[in-house]
Specification:
This protein is mainly α and 341 residues long. Among the domains are: 72 residues; 157 residues, 3 Solenoid (Pectate Lyase C-like), CATH 2.160.20. Helices cover 35% and strands 2% of the residues. A two-stranded parallel sheet has the order 1-2. It is elongated. The chain starts with a helix and ends in a 21-residue tail after the last strand.
């Protein structure tokens, strides 16, 4: 840029001096004039050169101003980010909360920093979700790690433990992020999120493999393309949630889960434990239920049409007739309407 500026300055000096006559003759095609006419023509050439130079200088000034403003803005964001990270490490809950919401603001203000902020918040959740302190624990009290604490046995209701206030805040921020700015999956692998409140959360493409979401409230959550292999969703509220094509729920624990009206079309539920789950009005078209455990699950027979499932798979399930809009209309038995026949 400096070299280009020097070249332009030399060219301008030349045009303002002896080069004006050359420009007049070769660019304007004016020859044979003398006296006042020649002087006026040369002044016009020099005036045009000055106008062009002024425009170039103005554009350069705008460019440098914008670049300096962007540099200053990025420096300000870096300072905010550094302070927010320091706040996350505080032993005081209110300061940690301030850091979480400061990071959310940074993610909104800077699309370039959005993926990094989400990675930091996900790491914070994974690191702190296993702290055994209750949300009401006072600051300064010793935390007890419970990484090795096992969940309840299959079919047994999970403990009343809930995520800490800071962990829940980080989950809320992730759940309302602009997913279009994501670079990678939100990584909540093997996190302990029992009884988490995630109503309406946007968890598209999230990695929830092995995550404990038992008793969590996931009603109307968006889990399209999420990976939930071996996830624990026992007794979770998944009413009306959207999994859609691409969701991977292989071997997931969905014992007693509320899946009424859930959008499960195209989801992979092979080997999933759906014992006692409520699947009434669930969208199961093209869902793969082969090998799933459906003992005691409540399912409308009509919802199984188009699903990849065999009669053996649903043996022991509570197959129901959908409520009729006409009270006088006789409802066929499940055997008469089995989709595989």
């Amino acid at each position: 840029m400096i070299a280009l500026g020097l070249v332009l300055a030399v060219a301008l000096g030349w045009v303002l001096g002896p080069g004006a006559a050359w420009v007049l003759a070769h660019f304007d095609g004016v020859n044979g004039i003398v006296g006042k006419d020649l002087a006026a023509a040369l002044d016009a050439v020099r005036g045009r050169a000055l106008a062009v130079a002024t425009g170039v200088i103005a554009l350069a000034a705008v460019f440098y101003t914008a670049r300096n403003a962007d540099t200053a803005r990025q420096g300000h964001i870096t300072d905010r980010y550094t302070k927010a990270i320091e706040q996350l490490g505080s032993d005081k809950l209110d300061i940690r909360l301030g850091g979480i919401y400061a990071l959310e603001r940074i993610a909104r203000d800077s699309a370039r920093d959005h993926p990094t902020v989400m990675e930091v918040l996900a790491a914070f959740i994974r690191e702190h979700c296993r702290d055994c302190d209750s949300p009401d624990q006072q600051d300064g009290e010793e935390r007890t790690a419970c990484d090795g604490q096992a969940g309840p046995p299959l079919g047994v209701h999970s403990s009343p433990r809930v995520p800490g206030t800071d962990v829940q805040a980080a989950l809320t921020v992730i759940g309302r992020r602009d997913h279009r700015q994501d670079r990678d999956r939100i990584d909540l692998f093997d996190a302990d999120l029992r009884r988490a409140f995630l109503t309406g959360a946007d968890l598209r493409r999230a990695n929830l493999s092995g995550t404990n979401l038992s008793d969590a409230n996931l009603s109307k959550a968006d889990l399209r393309d999420a990976v939930l292999v071996h996830a624990d969703l026992r007794h979770a509220n998944l009413q009306g949630h959207n999994l859609g094509p691409g969701a991977d729920l292989r071997d997931a624990l969905l014992v007693g889960a509320d899946l009424r009206g859930a959008k499960l079309s195209g989801a992979d539920l092979r080997g999933a434990f759906l014992i006692g789950a409520d699947l009434r009005d669930a969208h199961l078209f093209a869902a793969d239920l082969r090998g799933a455990q459906l003992r005691g699950a409540q399912i409308y027979v009509g919802d199984l049409h188009g699903a990849k499932v065999t009669e053996e798979d649903v043996r022991g399930a509570n197959l129901l007739d959908a409520p009729s809009t006409d009270a006088q209309e006789a409802s066929p038995s499940p055997e008469e309407t089995w989709p595989g026949e």
